[in-house]
From TrEMBL:
Residues 1-22, 131-157, 166-185, 639-663 are annotated as: Disordered. This is ATP-citrate synthase. It comes from Merluccius polli (Benguela hake). The gene is Acly. GO terms for molecular function: ATP binding; ATP citrate synthase activity; DNA binding; zinc ion binding. Keywords: Acetylation, ATP-binding, Cytoplasm, DNA-binding, Isopeptide bond, Lipid biosynthesis, Lipid metabolism, Magnesium, Metal-binding, Nucleotide-binding, Phosphoprotein, Transferase, Ubl conjugation, Zinc, Zinc-finger. Homotetramer.
Amino acid sequence: MIAHAPQVCSPTQPESNQSDSGQWLHKIRRTGFTITPHTKVCSRHFTKDQIRTTAKGRRFLTANAIPTLFEWNAYSNETRAAVWERRTRPTSSPEPGPAETEEEIVDMVPMPIDHDYVVYGSMVLDSMSDECGAPKQRPASRCCKRSTRTSGDGHHNPVKLKLLRRLHGGPGSPSQDPEPNRSLVPHSAVMSAKAISEQTGKEFLYKYICTAAAVQNRFCYANVTMETDWDRLTQEHPWLLTKSLVVKPDQLIKGRGKLGLVGINLDLQGVQDWVKTRLMKETMVAKAKGVLKNFLIEPFVEHTQDEEFYVCVYAAREGDYILFHHEGGVEVGDVDAKAQRLLVAVDDKLSEEQVMEKLLVHVGDEKKGVLASFIVGLFNLYEDLYFTYLEINPLVVTGDGVYVLDMAAKIDATADYICKAKWGDVEFPPPFGREAYPEEAYIADLDAKSGASLKLTLLNPRGRIWTMVAGGGASVVYSDTICDLGGVDELANYGEYSGAPSEQQTYDYAKTILSLITCEKHPQGKVLIIGGSIANFTNVAATFKGIVRAIKDYQGPLKEHEVTIFVRRGGPNYQEGLRVMGEVGKTTGIPIHVFGTETHMTAIVGMAMGHRPIPNQPPMDAHTANFLLNASSNAVTPASTRTASFSEPRAATEATHPKKSKTSFPADSLHSILWPLKNLVMANCKAKATTLFSRHTKSIVWGMQTRAVQGMLDFDYVCSRDEPSVAAMVYPFTGDHKQKFYWGHKEILLPVYKNMDDAMKKHSEVDVLISFASLRSAFDSTMETMQYAQIRTIAIIAEGIPEAQTRKMIKMADEKGVTIIGPATVGGIKPGCFKIGNTGGMLDNILASKLYRPGSVAYVSRSGGMSNELNNIISRTTDGVYEGVAIGGDRYPGSTFMDHVLRYQDTPGIKMIVVLGEIGGMEEYRICQGIREGRITKPVVCWCIGTCATMFSSEVQFGHAGACANQASETAVAKNQALRDAGAYVPKSFDELGDVIKTVYDELVADGIIVPAQEVPPPTVPMDYSWARELGLIRKPASFMTSICDERGQELIYAGMPITEVFKEEMGLGGVLGLLWFQRRLPRYACQFIEMCLMVTADHGPAVSGAHNTIVCARAGKDLISSLTSGLLTIGDRFGGALDAAAKQFSKAFDSGMLPMEFVNKMKKDGKLIMGIGHRVKSINNPDMRVQILKDFVKQNFPATQLLDYALNVEKITTSKKPNLILNVDGFIGVAFVDLLRTCGGFTRDEADEFVEIGALNGIFVLGRSMGFIGHYLDQKRLKQGLYRHPWDDISYVLPEHMSM
């Protein structure tokens, strides 16, 4: 069966017998599957053109094999069962063998989370190491009895050093893992830092390092897989026969040495024996069970212990840290405590003098020069190739030079567009023990081809709980809630779709999920949760149409597998989407429960799992169309009876009350670590504004985002601002001009500038830039903007900006006193004052969430979609939002949680603060310290999403790049507990977040701190015509009607046939013409006849009038289109246009029962020419071979040729009078086409006659002869012919007699 591990094909060209290298998989990323011996079960389903063999003998499926992989109906039941059996094998850890010690078991087997360890030990890491000294990620539950030991000299505080290092994203302490600190992510995950194989890392180093040190064993490595031919391998790498060798798996496995997965000092036969016993064998690594299938062989380097060193470079927000220790290798020990450390600040350069002074203090003078040169070269390589982590242990330095023995690395995958030339096609290995499913690769391929975000990770294909969630943050929240309610073992998948995918993209995503759900029955039936937060700009109805199509396609299997669907969504046009979803449930009989924004986002999880009752008639919010009216009936908000959910109200829980500080969380320790670090980092920074936005804030929008700008202006209008908040737009790709927008009921013009300098000079009042620049141009445009002192706030919407560029932007922003919101954000909103771009969604949500006037609650989150959900929750439980910011999902957001929390603390109008944190990073601990220090005194309600991560058996990369815990203290569970201990209000789950917010708010109202204000109705804003039509409120007759082609979906459709089917059926040009001209799928012979007609009419030499005109026009210097048009204008009854006329004349005579002789005589009597009869050159004695070829084909293939026979009888009469009065090619095609239309079975008689009447047949000549005219044009240009002037001697000048000579 198929081993569905995705591989990116190496750029090796195909063998000589393989054509079209353009089909190679390395040019179509993330769509391939390595074919292993396990593929035999399914290999019969693939054709030769779907398999490619590299020069090294490795076989790959090409991109056109993807459809075959998903034709599940083509698989036999045995095959499908075999595939799923392999995919769902148990992954539980086996019992430890007798050779394992208790210490080893502690390190390998996870245990329940211990609270004291989360607070203390999660910041301290395992001090063991292997031959690479790689830091091991110790689970939060592991024993930490070795974690508090001091370094050899006893002068370091290891707890402080380790937490300090972790706060900057550095590596952990070393372990027995030569591949350290890697986030083992699914192949399809979108994130910045991605682990690469050791072989890839060394290849980069050997190719591009620039150093005076002699780097030995360059490119001396060999890769071994199941397909390896050892004889060929030794030919390519002859050193394998002469040197002692080291062999190890290269699959991101931690603790290779400890697991006995490194073979040292072996000869080639020893390596072969060593590999043979392990290749394709299942191996347990911690909780993961995987197959060893990729090995790396290198020369063995004999050396002494004092020649081993440790070096590591890793990225942090403020710069890059270099760690160096003069003792490397297996016994390197706790490098956090021992290693020398040097911070190279962002944009700073590293010198050999710095290295010698700061890092090489314990190295002998004879090796300092070599090491200094190598480390500087390594750091420059790290920067140039956009590494985020690079570790070598041991680095061996001998008299011969430098040897890189073991290496681990991550690169910033978002820098692909910068480093493509050097990186090539990088393969990012999947996590060990979790091979990719074909469906994951299929969705990854859709994601790569789309501007939207589509993600899928299969966790347990046999599980009964499936999710289809919109939004990166929301997808995490739903997974959290399922796990919190005890569904972790039944959770089948993690995934998300966001970024406004099209209907077709959503359909493809949904049908993939549904095909997986209906693969295997569950005794309790299955549930599908189609959830999401309140969208900011995605048209919910459009995306739901794709899901509805998929449900209709799978309605039979869904009912057979007893699938119940729960839907909750909000956002633009969500009511229509919910209506359509409810209707499909009624028409198909599938139980579908539909809810909108009136329902708490995760309430449907409890319903699906039986923890909440399912309401019979859920309350419904007003329709989107009703936002013209003030929907509020209450003078004071919030209503006392309002609840976060329509389900049964719950009593306040203990989680709603903050807990006093526990002795288990040392406040002094955090104070000594976090705050000095904060002060150090901010020492040279300019103070930033506490108030970012006001009612008078003016902004410039970078990018032609007219919808976002109109949304901002509508928001300004309902907030009763005096003037629009957008002063101008900047768009470098057009000249300066004005763009029309609406301000309430009237139209206004906003200036659009080609460059930033003009915009800044003419709008000195602007202090905010909203950048919709692409990920490629966002850096340059932002750096340019910060040169203008008037700018105080910049919002960067783009996702996927390389981290190195983000850090440079952050550094300059700190120096200039500029607040950056983003990257990878929707922005932020300050009700009654200002909103960034699409934040807050459309006007219906603005009004429903009362964002047109300030409340008393401020929030900060990472997720843009979840920020809109917070708007909804806060508006339903409090008097509303005062300000809200989504800082973005990247690892290094331009501004942090703490930056905004401190602003909120210093803003008098804000009475309470809500923080929605997430897994990954340490920023929430700064909030803890701020509360303990008394810097934050206002109530803080906080919840960190991603609690489910600790329950998964393998790591899952969530939707945001920064949502990945590199150690226990970065888990959501640890941070929630720390916040709870510090005194923040922390719910038990996101499901209870609204309850906690309401409880805190009610206490503040009861204490008189918040006095709810009277509600003031906002002004109405007219609805745009386009949106009113989208909502179905109006109708308008279309300006055009078409029935031949539809380009609106993901795939072009010709007369109802997808373009892929056109090629699959090999319909050819004749078939396409049949679809587009006649809206029929014509028989094969008809398609062939059309193509033959095009070929015989393509050209008839340069002397005919059309070709002559084309040539004259081309020689006059005109362009192709003008020259072609000049030739086409000559086509008519006298030249080329006789097809229609001949068809009409002969058809009329034949249909009226007129004999051929009668027809000829009548035409002569009427003085009319018989169209299609006669030729200037050809005759009965010199026949036209074009006509003869067509005649033979028609007689052999057409069912009947009545009209053609009639025309041939006419020809006998005319040629008897004059030999050149033959049936010419125009006449033949005309009458033969009538026979075709009448007898092929695809048309009624009326339809066939109609096509003749409307001139369809002349199109054959026009289309065919256009090819010839273009040929003549190109010929004249290629021959460089000059202006044509007709010679005098070829002109007969006929003048009046009195003027003649």
